[in-house]
Amino acid sequence: MSDKLEKLYEKYNILSDAKDKVSQHLNEYVESIDGIKGNENEKMLAAQILSKFFKYFPSLQDKALNALLDLCEDEETKIRACAMRYLVSICKDVKEHLTKVTDILAQMMQLEEQRDYTTASWCLLQLWKEDSVNVLKTMYNHIRSLNNAAARVKCLQLIHNKFIKPIDSQPTEIENIVVEESKKLLQDEISSDEIVIIITCLKHSKYGKTAVGQQELLDFISEIMELDGEFDPLEDCTVDRVIICTTHALPLFSAKNESTKFVAYYCDQILPQWDKIVTLEQGKLFQLQLLRHLAEMSIYCGKFENPSLHVVQIFDKIKVYMPAPPENADVYKMPNLEFSYVECLLFTFHRLARQCPDFLTHDPQILKDFRARLVYFSRGVQGCNKVIQTKSIEGLSSVNMAKAKIAPSLLNNINVLIKDLFYQPPMYKCNVTLSFKQETIEKELKKPAGSSGQKRHVPITFDNGSTTSKQIRPNRSGDNVKLYTPPSGKFSNNFQNYDRGSSRSNRPRGRGARGRGAGRNWRN
Fold first, then answer.
1. Inter-CA distances, 135 with 54, 97, 98, 217, 413, Å
2. 31-53 mean pLDDT
3. What total of structural domains would you count in the chain?
4. DSSP assignment letter at 444
5. Is residue 253 part of a domain?
6. Model pTM greater than 0.90?
7. Which domain holds residue 47?
8. Which of 229, 365, 494, 522 fits a 20 to 30 Å CA distance from 453?
9. Please, is 112 exposed, middle or buried when counting C-beta atoms within 10 Å of its C-beta (0-12, 13-18, 19+)?
10. Domain ends where: 60, 93, 126?
11. What is the band of 441 on the pLDDT scale with cuts at 50, 70, 90?
12. Half-sphere CA count of 327, side-chain side, radius 13 A
């Protein structure tokens, strides 16, 4: 044992034996502070002395706290972990330092070593048990000071996964702080990961379960989606942003909170850019997910001022996927049919065209052509049904088996919608449940995926019952499934670059405008 370490033990024994008169041994405590400059054992013992007798020396607390902060910057992980734990100890004795220590520990979470993150988060959880209100407020203040999206996500994950989960079981004061602070963050430039964490939490809070709260969340999402701007699918991450935001918006729509503005954006901005979307990597996947979202949103779409302007965009896409019959009636070669796409488009058209019932009847030629397409497509539906009935699903791959289970419901929906639209004049009365929303399908798709990763549904095509497509099935929207993750991963990394307050051509990149600094400022 070194002489310095032995002297530290002597000081520890003196302070410990003094009991109620420990405050009279000021010199021993001062000399212990200098112990942090020694070797590993000396630093560990000095930190223990500083924390254990911290409350007895008010005049030396700032100096002792700074000494512990020096140990938080030590090169040895073991010493840093020790210092963090002792910071928690002094806060239990002297509450006035809790805010500063919380901020320090939040900064320690950003260090590279996993052990630092684990220790810092554990220490923060101990402080949360001591004073949840002040810890929570300090954490949010710290988040707003950060210039790095990944660092903010770490802090948010700790708050949402450790502190307040589940949010609706927290005291009213805590929930109010979370709601107000989250709303402030949503008005700032934040990454997609932050949006996912914040909105998921708010949706399950008491605030998110009220009509007013849901409408406010929809307003935030509409800002992030830039519903008042132009949609450019070739701009980096634009399609990803729309899909992620719509996925979160879907559970919020209701008879009170209509989806009208979102549906109009899909019809007027997204559908006209359809040919550009398919040129993207996995463009077909994006198209199917967008159509599914549009179909779900149409359920809660309110009255349009001029509905035919929006419905015509859907009608144009229906004609793309419901081909006209060949001129030579003797030729019966059915093309590949995108049943999944048609179900979504027919469902959406059926929901929205009732707002303009003369859309199909005002021009006899349009109605005649449409009826011919309906008849021709129904032949494809019948043919596909026959193939399904004559083939066993045993031995199919998991992807094809999922398709085979979905197919009867999907084809039945198309048949029902076609029958309604084939009336003279067309009717808009039948009610169907979208095949991908069926409870049985939901259970099937929730089964764990194989080692190759989560499998994604491929649109059903009519080619003698076989499928060779290798597309990936996108996650379905709703509270009970995970958020759709863009295959490219770009949106998650780059979404913070988007600025809601400026035009697309002029908006700045990065978060520099917020004036956030980098590096540690533990003693400020």
1. 21, 11, 8, 25, 53
2. 92
3. 2
4. H
5. no
6. no
7. 1-93
8. 494
9. exposed
10. 93
11. very low
12. 0
